[in-house]
């Protein structure tokens, strides 16, 4: 099995406001029939955002491409972001799927509060599907929160 992960982060400014474009690509390729646990899955907050993750598309081969525009909120340690993601799966296991492609959008805010002995970070987001196969069950809007404390 071959796996490719690529990330690119490009900072830029418009009218003295700092922004960052971040793109991430993950691909998986194999000629072998895999167990489900080894399949590439798409349709969660970690792959193609905008989907609730209750149902995903999975197959032996595939990729997802995440794109995000970030706006750091001055010097507060908080960042507003908006993203559009796309993913596609290929292989024999797609024969039983509702489809092979998903696209979704997300908006959110993430940040952190550093402290001398501990740090707190968070991510609050809302997403929605842009494209899904007919008959693919998912929520119209997905909201989520993630919090991390480090000591």
TrEMBL record:
<dbReference type="InterPro" id="IPR005565">
    <property type="entry name" value="Hemolysn_activator_HlyB_C"/>
</dbReference>
<protein>
    <recommendedName>
        <fullName>Haemolysin activator HlyB C-terminal domain-containing protein</fullName>
    </recommendedName>
</protein>
<dbReference type="Pfam" id="PF03865">
    <property type="entry name" value="ShlB"/>
</dbReference>
<dbReference type="InterPro" id="IPR051544">
    <property type="entry name" value="TPS_OM_transporter"/>
</dbReference>
<feature type="domain" description="Haemolysin activator HlyB C-terminal">
    <location>
        <begin position="4"/>
        <end position="111"/>
    </location>
</feature>
């Amino acid at each position: 099995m071959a796996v490719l992960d690529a990330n690119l982060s490009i900072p830029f400014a418009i009218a003295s406001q700092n922004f960052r474009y971040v793109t991430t690509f993950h691909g998986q390729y194999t000629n072998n029939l895999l167990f489900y646990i080894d399949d590439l899955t798409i349709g969660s907050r970690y792959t193609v955002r905008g989907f609730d993750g209750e149902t995903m598309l999975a197959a032996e081969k595939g990729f997802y491409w995440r794109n995000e525009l970030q706006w750091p909120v001055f010097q507060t340690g908080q960042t507003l972001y908006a993203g559009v993601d796309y993913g596609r799966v290929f292989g024999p296991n797609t024969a039983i799927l509702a489809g092979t492609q998903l696209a979704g959008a997300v908006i959110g805010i993430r940040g952190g509060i550093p402290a001398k002995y501990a740090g707190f970070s968070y991510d609050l987001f809302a997403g929605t599907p842009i494209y899904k196969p007919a008959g693919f069950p998912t929520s119209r809007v997905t909201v989520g929160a993630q919090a991390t404390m480090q000591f």
